[in-house]
Amino acid sequence: MSPRAETAMSPRRFWLLPPRRPAGARRGAGRWLAASLLAAAAAAVAQEGHPLKGSWIGEWESNETHGEAVLVVLDWDGESITGVINPGTDDIPITDAALDPSDWCVRIEAEAEALSYVIDGRIEDLQLPSRRIVGTWRHDDGGGDFEIQRQ
Q: What is the pTM of this model?
């Protein structure tokens, strides 16, 4: 049998087994993959941005005027916190919002047609992307517990 025929029949050339590669090539690929994953994870954490920015969904209990389900959209433009409560046909523009980073307390003020809302809360689970704001809400006719979670 010729040397060429022997090579074609060797177990390494069989279609179920992968071809042999130098050991250094495997290690280099693994290191490259690990470095890429670490860089991607660091970039994802670095892009978190302002702790209030985003869409928040939850409840403000006992709100007979606007219902108990609430959606809050907050934005940070580099200088101030802006946003809207329940965007759509019954939206309530946020007139003022503040965050105290010393204890992560949040105060949101908003004006509806005939009501002025004030929401006071604290950010919980700050380290998580799905953090929450828990506190109370009030307006001229009442108030109650308030809890929203970032989506």
A: 0.67
- Copy the structure tokens of residue 13: 């050339």
Residues 79 and 26 in one domain: no
pLDDT grade for 47, boundaries at 50, 70 and 90: very low
- What percentage of the chain has pLDDT greater than the value 70? 68
Show the domain range for 7: 3-46
pLDDT of residue 46: 45
pLDDT at 136: 97
Residue with tokens 């809302």: 117
For residue 61, what is the domain's CATH number? 2.40.128
Q: CA-to-CA distance for 144 and 137, rounded, in angstroms?
A: 6
Q: Is the pLDDT of residue 148 over 90?
A: yes
Backbone angles phi, psi at 149, to 5 degrees: -130, 135
Dist. CA 117–CA 91, nearest whole Å: 12
Q: State phi, psi for 146 to the nearest 5 degrees.
A: -135, 130
Residue with tokens 């709100």: 63
CB neighbours (10 Å) of residue 12? 9
CA 102 to centroid of chain Cα atoms: 22
C-alpha atoms less than 13 angstroms from C-alpha of 32 in its C-beta half-sphere:
6
